[in-house]
């Protein structure tokens, strides 16, 4: 079992993933395969949480589309994830932002962090 972890860590160590946390607004460019055609579709939203570590790490992203909340869970190191962009840093005091599901409009806003782009 450790051999599988070692191999997957070596493969995924080559990928550059920017630092982001819950509350940040990110854009995930995800490859969608339909039949024999593939395209890249961006999904921009607020990070609700990050879960797991290493090759099994996932991130839940929530956006509002046509006044309906849409949440997707993406594997961070998936080969279908083309790239991840951090659009805005959010200032939150929690690691999981499930309370955003019940809020809409101005209540669902997250303040922007005034810190420089650091890992703290």
The strands making up the biggest β-sheet line up spatially as: 4-3-2-1-5
Give the end-to-end Cα distance, rounded to a whole number of Å. Answer: 33 Å
Helix fraction?
Answer: under 10%
Give the biggest sheet.
5 strands, antiparallel
Q: Quickly count the helices.
A: 1
Taking Cα atoms only, what radius of gyration do you get, to the nearest Å? 16 Å
The CATH topology annotation reads as: SH3 type barrels
The appropriate CATH architecture is Roll
Shape: globular
**H/E element order:** HEEEEE
Number of domains: 1
What assembly state would you assign to the polypeptide chains in this entry? single chain
What is the typical, i.e. mean, pLDDT?
Answer: 88
How many strand elements? 5
Percentage of β-strand residues: 35-45%
Low-confidence stretches: none
The CATH top-level class label: Mainly Beta
Report the structural category.
mainly beta
